[in-house]
Amino acid sequence: MNQYHFKQSFSADPTLSDKLFDLVEDTFPGLSSLAECGRKLGASWETASTPFIRFHDDVAITHVGVLEIPMHIMGQRVTAGGVHAVATRAEFRRRGYYRQVMEEVLEYCDQLYETLVLTTPQPEFYLPFGFRIVEEQIFKLQCDCTGDTDGLRILNFADIKDFTLLHRLLETRTPVSNVVGVVKEKPVFCVNEGSRSLYYVEDLDLIACMEIEDCRLHLFDLVATQICSLKEILARIPQHIEEVVIYFSPERLDVKDVQSFPHKLDETVLMVRGTFAAEGEKFMLPRSARC
């Protein structure tokens, strides 16, 4: 049986969360606020992530987190390990601490997952550990559409009905794509999307992670028990839309004349370690599932 030196437990140490976020906030300003959004939506970081932390005089100096992401890849259910919130304090860098922690993380993960995923603007940090870059695509199509009904409303999570609705759909959602999608996942979604406006289409029973910029619709994810066509979604947006940009493989949206382009979402790349059946396909890991 392996003995881990850096693996920690939030439940065993009630002070651990504050020590961790003191570190990660120094590396990723604003992440603590996003994590708090997740907690308010009932999907806490502490219940989802397994932290591997190196300490120096009771101060967290290096962290690598691991969480599970239930994915749908090329039509098959895959439980992937998500590596996230990798951080080392500036004054402790270049001393080999990150390597020590990461090697232990991989020893742990190799017993549990055939696939590891992460997203990063700095892939060079992960290439030495067997991670590889997988190219992602966005999908664009031109249209001339103005919906004939106002079928959207922004969810209000202070209302228990909307809070319950979100959890129901996250628990029962169908993957947004058969190439790469996510099912029954809450913590990453709530951290990534909890501070943004989420739109609900009541007659379709669908949550849309989307933004409208002038006459351009950016569609990042759909949370529903049944994926409808893009035409049905556009019909419920009472605004002129000339272009739709889709940030996931759109084969379930019943669209034609779609063009795909290589794209780095927020200047990050997707990296995988182990098997990944969608490699070489045209897809993007939805924004809501990126860690």
UniProtKB/TrEMBL annotation:
Q: What residues does the N-acetyltransferase domain cover?
A: 7-146
Please provide an example of a Pfam family that matches this protein in its UniProt record.
Acetyltransf_9
SUPFAM superfamilies cross-referenced by the UniProt entry: Acyl-CoA N-acyltransferases (Nat)
**GO terms, molecular function:** acyltransferase activity, transferring groups other than amino-acyl groups
Show the InterPro entries listed in the entry.
Answer: Acyl_CoA_acyltransferase, GNAT_dom
CDD domains in the record: NAT_SF (cd04301)
Q: Know the name of this protein? A: GNAT family N-acetyltransferase
